[in-house]
Amino acid sequence: MAKRIVALTVLLMSVLCAGAQHDKIHQKARTRIENMRIAIITSRLDLTTEESEKFWPLYNEYRKKIDKLHQDRMELIDRKMQSDSVNALSDGEAEKVLSSILKINDEYARVQNEYYKRFQKLLGSRRALELYRSEVQFKRAIVRELREMPERRAD
User: Fold this and answer.
1) Which helix (H) or strand (E) holds 58?
2) CB of 73 closer than 8 Å to CB of 105
3) Do residues 123 and 51 make contact, with C-beta atoms less than 8 angstroms apart?
4) What is the separation, in whole angstroms, between the first and last Cα of the chain?
5) Picking from 9-13, 44-48, 68-72, 82-86, which range would have the lowest pLDDT averaged per residue?
6) Has this prediction a pTM greater than 0.85?
7) pLDDT digits over 41-51, tens only?
């Protein structure tokens, strides 16, 4: 009995350590991605010190809202479209899922519109457009990097 308890404890500890290691790797990747985003935006916008003091808190607020919407959409998709086959959903269930996704997309557009007006007021139209362009460039850089990852390459 004591051997089983020790074995289960060792197994539990190894699972917890593996989970903690995975979390560390995930956090490190997230930090690297955010640093890449900041570097691209900083280099493209050429903000003054005064502009930076106003811009970054506003941008961080914007990103928090956008990231939450993205997370909500992905959780919905994961929960309804990957755990169950789409074909297994009734028409009513499929309609509800699609409606929920479209509502999240509408909210995403609303938040983006609201904040880009605020960015435009702070930075002017050209630099607000440059911010948008910087975000597109950032997304392309992430996709490029993901494609170049060894485990993503076809053998």
Assistant:
1) helix 49-77
2) yes
3) yes
4) 47
5) 9-13
6) no
7) 988 998 999 99
